[in-house]
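INTERNAL TRANSFER SHEET
From: sequence group
To: structure group
Subject: Phosphoribosyltransferase domain-containing protein

Please process the attached sequence and return the structure record in the designated field. Keep the field labels unchanged so the import script can parse them.
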Amino acid sequence: MQPDPLRRGPWREHLADALDLLMPVWCAGCDAPGRPLCEICAAEIARPLRHDADGLEVRSVARYEGTAARVVRALKEDGRTGLARPLGALMADLVRQAGWADAVLVPVPPSRAALRRRGYAVPELLARRCEARVGRWLRSRGRALDQRLLGRAERERNVAGAFLARPGTGAVVIVDDVMTTGATLRAARNALSAAGRRVVGAVVLADTPLRVSAEGIPGGS
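Return from structure group:
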């Protein structure tokens, strides 16, 4: 039986309570005090799905809608980096279920504009909360347009050849935050494969259909 990735031991509960007195937090999903993400909202957003992105197996924690969308926006746009720990635990559970526990997690690098705006790289933050080996083996090259403004075919062209990968061998899992068409994941896979890596799959925090309005998707790829 797999352990519950969100279950806390007694000492963790006491520590969380003590920290809450010093730095009050509230649930990004329902505004309940005490936790960045309460157990009720964590259970509500966790709707794991498996996708095929042109031969790449992608596991997603949630659909980008309702509470899940609110939580993702809080992490990506509101600076709620404390959410990375419980959300990373949910992603780590998907990695184990897929049988990818021995692979190295490779986060998709953000654009320079996104990194300047936020001050942190969301995929890398999530990957490092998965308690697995993480390799910063991808880097962006050139300047891609904001994916939120583009249609399906335009997204594919926009990220084609957008990444360079460090040469090497071994199994890797690509990590990203939001998937719309899978164009960014496919571009990352192509770069890693060309560099000699064996891409066994990808894991994302949320997936969203392209029909969702672009304004509501924080950097979907």
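Handover comment: The first strand starts at residue 49 and ends at 53. The chain has eight helices and seven strands.
Transfer complete.
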